[in-house]
Specification:
Elements lengths: L1 H10 L13 H28 L6 H5 L5 H28 L9 H12 L4 E5 L1 H11 L6 E5 L6 H10 L5 H10 L5 H7 L13 H13 L2 H12 L4 E4 L6 E7 L7 E4 L10 E8 L7 H8 L3 E4 L4 H9 L2 H9 L3 E5 L14 H11 L7 E5 L24 E5 L12 H20 L1
Parallel strand pairs: 1-2, 1-7, 2-3, 7-8, 8-9, 9-10
Antiparallel strand pairs: 4-5, 4-6
């Protein structure tokens, strides 16, 4: 039955407006009731005129008396329904076509919008390119997305703006906003544009400058993110883990016999010699952004990673209120392990060592589910290695493996594959909870 209806919808596109869940039929019904009421009112007026003999034209012609009553009812009803359908279709096209995606019927855009509105509430925690990759896949399943982004970045364009203007680093926020926006939008491409030359502009991206300027105009960084989200018409929200100015520090040990030393600054940690033993925020008591806590507590699914383990994922969980909210949340909590190791951070790490590092900085068992890539084929960049799946995890974790790697850049996740694996995990848990 549904297959037949879908075929008819493709042949007669206006039938698509009758799909369940669009929120259209109720208003069409109300419109019809209103039209019927208006028609009855006009009919009563015509009856009074007819009975009073005030009609200037031949009555038989106007009232179609030469047709039987059932034929008049069918004729006038058919004309009325046809006029209503045509007018609604043309009106909707005239009003909605400027907002429809190029090459797609308006009804398809509306149906997708409604489906995403009813999608699960997902909180993604991280930063860097890993978080934006995840968001790029999730936005095709739900618009109820909250990206919680680290504010410890101090390198590149973000670091320069942070040091010179005292704003939170906008780079990771820009990438997340662009990931949740229309991939084909000109404004999205403009947001990601990076100046290749120019005194003072070289190395800066337009989006970083835009967010920084918006923070000055609106008076706060969180308002700047909100207004930037509206400009890009993103699906979801992008918010900081904390609004405080924090610095990431790390204790590194060059070898087993040497003593550990401290490195200050997120951008300096991966390039410093030695293995990372621990990272911390200074100050270590920065409060969480309230909206981040609220989103975590209301989430259906909380995802940490993928991304740089020590400089993108863990810094968010070092904000105590964020970690406490994750612990208290009843959502499904999953850690997405990287497909490849990262020089200067996780060289030689297995999946188990990623989890041990995560739990050394947060509570044990904070993310009981772990998703890892099991397609370890293709050519990696120099100094990269596949994150091995061995040794096996302990009994406190559930390991889900799948082909998650990007075909062209296998050291990265494929957004569609990763989002599909997460949605499958969420669906399986919901089904199991209902049994």
């Amino acid at each position: 039955m549904r297959h037949t209806f879908d075929q008819l919808s493709r042949r007669f596109q206006w039938l698509g407006w009758l799909r369940i869940g669009l929120g259209i039929k109720r208003w069409v019904l109300l419109l019809l009731i209103g039209i019927v009421g208006l028609g009855l009112g006009i009919a009563f007026a015509l009856v009074e005129i007819y009975r009073g003999g005030a009609m200037p034209l031949p009555l038989d012609l106007i009232t179609l008396q030469f047709f039987p009553r059932w034929a008049r009812a069918l004729l006038l009803g058919g004309i009325g329904l046809g006029a209503i359908a045509l007018s609604l279709a043309r009106l909707s096209k005239a009003l909605l076509s400027p907002f429809a995606a190029r090459g797609r019927p308006i009804v398809e855009v509306v149906a997708e919008h409604r489906r995403k509105q009813r999608g699960p509430r997902v909180v993604a925690i991280g930063g860097g390119t890993g978080l934006s990759t995840l968001l790029r896949g999730l936005k095709h399943h739900t618009s109820n997305i909250t990206a919680i982004v680290t504010v410890a970045d101090d390198g590149g364009s973000s670091g320069r703006l942070r040091r010179s203007l005292g704003v939170l680093p906008p780079g990771d926020f820009r990438n997340c906003l662009a990931a949740l926006a229309d991939d084909e939008s000109l404004i999205t491409n403009l947001f990601q544009y990076r100046f290749g030359s120019g005194d003072g502009l070289e190395g800066h991206s337009f989006g970083n400058l835009f967010i920084t300027a918006m923070a000055e105009v609106t008076g706060s960084f969180e308002k700047a993110l909100l207004e930037s989200s509206r400009v890009l018409a993103i699906q979801g929200r992008v918010i900081p883990a904390t609004l405080h100015d924090v610095t990431l520090v790390a204790d590194l040990r060059p070898d087993d016999s040497a003593s550990a030393y401290r490195v200050r600054g997120e951008s300096a940690i991966p390039t410093a010699p030695g293995a990372i033993e621990r990272v911390a925020l200074q100050p270590d008591d920065a409060p969480a952004f309230p909206d981040a806590v609220h989103a975590i507590l209301a989430a259906d699914l909380i995802v940490a990673g993928p991304g740089s383990l020590y400089t993108s994922v863990i810094p968010n969980l070092l904000v105590r209120d964020v970690a406490a909210a994750v612990r208290a949340s009843r959502a499904i909590k999953v850690y997405v392990c990287n497909t490849a190791t990262q020089p200067g951070e996780t060289g030689g790490y297995t999946v188990l060592e990623h989890i041990r590092a995560l739990e050394a900085h947060a509570d044990q068992g904070l993310f009981p589910a772990v998703i890892a890539n099991d397609k370890q084929t293709g050519k990696l960049l120099p100094n990269l290695q596949w994150v091995r799946l061995d040794p096996p995890l302990n009994g406190g974790h559930r390991l889900i493996t799948a082909d998650l790697s990007d075909e062209d850049n296998p050291w990265r996740h494929d957004p569609a594959k990763l989002a599909a694996a997460l949605m499958k995990l969420l669906e399986e848990n919901l089904v199991a909870s209902q049994k």
